[in-house]
Amino acid sequence: MNAEIVISGLCSILNPFGENPAMSDPGVIVVQTMGHQHGPEHDHIGYLAYDSDVVEVTGVPTAVSVPNTTFFYFPVDGWELVIDGITAGTPKPTSDHSFRDLVAHRDEYWPEAEGDFDRDVVPEPRKRPKKTAVKAWMRFGAGEISASRISKVPWRFTGSSGMTLQRHFAEEVVYSFSVAGNAVVIQLYDLESEAAGEKLTFKLRDSSSTVPLSLILGNNTQIDLPQSLFREVTEHVEHPYSTHFAFLNQTAKVKDGPIPVAINPKDDGGGGGSGGACGPGSGNGRPTS
To answer: Domain extents for the chain?
Structure first.
């Protein structure tokens, strides 16, 4: 069956096409956000979500209902998520131009950090991220990576050298793949000890449907969670300075990375409002493939 992982919020795509030998397999990390300087209400929820009207699931005893929606999510904190039937990095995923052109790539907006990694966050080959730095980790194999949900608000990064990067950035990265059978099975492993946890099995309620089975792997504040689950495009923002983006800059050991600022952030037309840009991003340079 065809399936997709929709990646939203404070998540960083790492080594998406295996081009960097100093990094682990292609994949995504959900970054830790505890201790935000503006208080606990700005802490983010790491989650794996599904629409219960479309998807049925077994093996999720702690699924949380999102009020006034048909969505449920499984909190992820301290787990590696392994898709059954997908071998990490073999073969490596491909992409279309959208991922290259529309995602915030760290080495583009922060060239001073090129090649610099905090190894608690970005593991070396055959190593694992630390729980203190990462909530969850999923590695990619065969499939395609693309960008989606393009913000209608342009954002600008300004580096220490005065270099600027302005773009309508993607608010989602989508990993599309295929598995044998009629279910997507995700096995959880402890992020550090590798001890096996729950096995989650997702199926489409309509077995005759030809749409991909869609799951959302995200990291959002409680207030921004519905917008990510319903995949609403941002049309205006309340706060022009996206301070939450600093969590994505933690992929580097050097500090004080650029924070994006919204251009013309407020539109009284309403709809699609958000607290600010919260990723996802790519923790290394703009890919060449």
So the answer is: 2-282
